[in-house]
Amino acid sequence: MNRLILIIILGVSILMSACTQDASGEESESFNISYSTWANEGEPAFDGMKKFKEIVERETDGNITVDLYPGNQLGSTIEQMEQLKLGIIEMMSSGDPGLDEIEYLSLPYLMASNNHWTAVLESDVAQEWNDELINVQGVRTLDILPRGVRVISSNIEIVNPEDTNGFKIRTPAVDYYVQTFEALGANPTPMDMGELYSGLQTGVVEGQENPLETIYSSGLHEVQRYIINSNHMFKPAFVSINEEFFQSLPEEYRDIVEKAADEGREYAQEQLELGEEEMIKIMEESGVTFLDPDIEAFKEATQSVRDSLGFKIWGEEDYRKIVEIGQSELD
């Protein structure tokens, strides 16, 4: 369907309200959620969205229906975020949280897991960020959808930071990615994801970094000999909802939506872990070697990146609190 036509249909749908009859025969107000994402069918994050849809529709007896739009059907992340703010769509998941204070939780080795992300977002430190998103942008962060920890792929063995000296690695064109690999002595080279496979194949870049599921789904292991379990960043997707729509729901439905987002995250994490085992097996059978580097040496080499950007974004006091939560023992 033409994207413009689809967006127009979505815009019309939010102007319409309907009533349905519940089991007792009484009328109940119904709602529709248009939920968009970059993720595609088969990705753990999209599995989490499908679980969200299943729970919401079941727990509300069908009074809330959820339409999923995978694969950036409704436009780029920026375009989807604008639609969310305007209320053209009700929900989206993406790598863009809409606020630097949340974005920079992806600093190298700052978070010990996806669950630590959740712990920070639910802490007192994050309350001000959530309030700003709601009051200024009209968007609420409900939860996250986990993605795999970011690792390095390469045609050379890397086990110590010294092994990356001069290593030409593709990174996103974002300062904390670039500074992380500069601190390791590498030569970070921003490149569009669509050009990466051929860039690795022709030697324009020697390696790259991404979650394992992205490396696998993009076929990058076909042109790389090693996967280095550097585990240098966790960067989940963010589940966002239009605040005006959220507040228009009856309280019991708001509770259901929040619960479904939480259970969707847990389900996506389970699918992610199951999928990783299979991906590793397939990649090893294709000739890829997995290496475990000296993680402590990588953490030490990137300490200056965490400290300089952490102080800049949050101030020293909040930065110290975030470090404590991000590395804590969770129940």
Enter the CATH topology name of the largest domain: D-Maltodextrin-Binding Protein, domain 2
What's the level 1 CATH class of the largest domain? Alpha Beta
In the CATH classification, which architecture of the largest domain applies?
Answer: 3-Layer(aba) Sandwich
Number of strands: 12
Biggest beta-sheet profile: 6 strands, mixed
Termini separation: 46 Å
The average pLDDT score comes to 91
Quick structural summary:
This protein is α/β, with parallel strands linked by helices and about 325 residues long. It has two domains: about 5-145 and about 235-275, Bacterial extracellular solute-binding protein, family 7 (D-Maltodextrin-Binding Protein, domain 2); about 150-235 and about 275-325, D-Maltodextrin-Binding Protein, domain 2.
List the helices and strands and how they pair.
Blueprint lengths: L2 H11 L4 E4 L5 E11 L6 H16 L4 E6 L7 H10 L4 E4 L5 H4 L10 H8 L5 H11 L1 E7 L4 E5 L13 E4 L3 H9 L3 E4 L5 H7 L4 E5 H6 L8 E8 L3 E6 H6 L2 H35 L3 E3 L3 H7 L1 H12 L1 H11 L5
Parallel strand pairs: 2-3, 2-4, 7-8, 7-9, 10-12
Antiparallel strand pairs: 1-2, 4-11, 5-11, 6-9, 6-10
Helix pairs in contact: 2-11, 13-14
